[in-house]
Amino acid sequence: MPNAGGGALVVYVDAGDDRTILEYAVQHLLPATVQVRLVTAGADSNAKLAAGQGDLAYFQHIPAFEADRQQHSYNDLSIVSKVNAVPYGLYSSKWRDLKDNSSWVHVGLVQDQISGTGLPHGSQVVLPATPTGFARGLYLLQSAGVVRLDRPFGGTTAGDLTIGQGNVLDSARHLSLLALNLDQDLRSIYDSYDAVVLSPEQAASIGLQPAKDALALEPGPANPYAHVLVAPARLAGDARVLELTHALESPQLAQFVRTTFHGADIPVTAADAK
Question: How confident is the model at residue 270 (pLDDT cuts 50, 70, 90)?
Answer without folding.
Answer: low
